[in-house]
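Here's what a typical entry looks like (M28 family peptidase):
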Amino acid sequence: MKNIILSLCVLTVSFGSAQTNPKIYDIIAAVSADRIEQDITTLAGFGTRNTFSDTVSTTRGIGAARRWIKQEFETISTSCNNCLDVFYQKDFVKAEGNRRVPRDTWIVNVAAVQKGTKYPNRYIIMSGDIDSRNSDGSDFTKDAPGANDNASGMAGAIEAARVLSKYKFESSIVYLGLSGEEQGLFGGAGFAAYAKEQGWDIIGVLNNDMIGNIKGVDGVISNVDFRIFSEPVPPTETEEQRRRRRFYGGEVDGVSRQLARYVYTTTKTYMPEMNPMMIYRLDRFGRGGHHRPFNDLGYAGIRIMEAHENYTQQHQDIRVEDGIEYGDKLKFVNFDYAKKLTAVNAITMASLAWAPPSPKNVAIGGIVAPSAKFKWDKVDGAIGYKIYWRDTTSPTWDYSRFVGDVSEFTLDGIVIDNFFFGIAAVGPNGHESVVTFPNAIFR
């Protein structure tokens, strides 16, 4: 009996640590607005980073930019005893058949991989875009500083690498600079295909595209609001999965939506001053971002970005017209805000990389019964599991219960018709996996 009581006490302490893990607060404090400002300034200083711009110059064009990014990752790796594997990943894109591609070119991405100690083939990716554009995406000669779109996201990925490289994680983290975004998401498509060929188990892609503007074209100014875009279900689901959803639910419970909820919960736990806005779209209306190619292959991927855009400062030639200053200039970036959204990414990746994998084969039962029943496969490295549920109209997981180190459980008094449910694995450090929505039914 004494041993049982001791085990329960240890379990309670371990589980509770996720709410007050000092390492997460240390990560938030370590993110530097000054370093982000320096990196955005450097990137904008290359004049243009258009996909088809100069690749030979050391001071101008996308070639200089990607070499500088690679050098920054290598410098970070040196400071952490070569903890990062830094490399280029590239694909050749032909102009023929691509109206937005004026000439054949190499799309070159820059990756820095921090290998996990326990689950090295599980990857969490934070991406920013290397390239920029002016009013004409094919114009590679005129200036396109791209300070916010998207030097801010790229600088955030570099800063996250600086901060997180000081820690050891169970899963692997990838800090990624992607090219060719403005011409058709070529960089993301190439890297997603590369990851699939390598057999990577990607558990989340955090695409950061414009994280530095706080003043919207609508006049709203906010340094705490930000948006999380996520698609409801993967495009790779089968016809049978679609058919079952009509009867059992899950229209807004795909892997990307669960990742978005994870970002939301982590942010509200550790950075409660922030206002993460769950946007139920793949991306902005009729537009796209570099998480989409990963979604296309069935991976969980979301877009994190500012809440209030200013369209006069993106995809614009630098000019003054009718008293309005156009252009994506350094002067319009709020570096403290970029720091906050970088911290959101960093604590999400740290929490995921310190957590066990999500449960598999989660089944739910309890049809025409006053209880909800669950079964799942146990996860290596988990000390227990947490059942989540929410009203069917709620965007976030609002209720939960820790149920210990078991593989099945019954929630008495809860009618499954009125709620959606999911299961998360809990590690010995208290960190939780992404929630798994039930994918099977039992009687």
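Confidence is low (pLDDT under 50) at residues 1-18.

More examples are in the samples folder.
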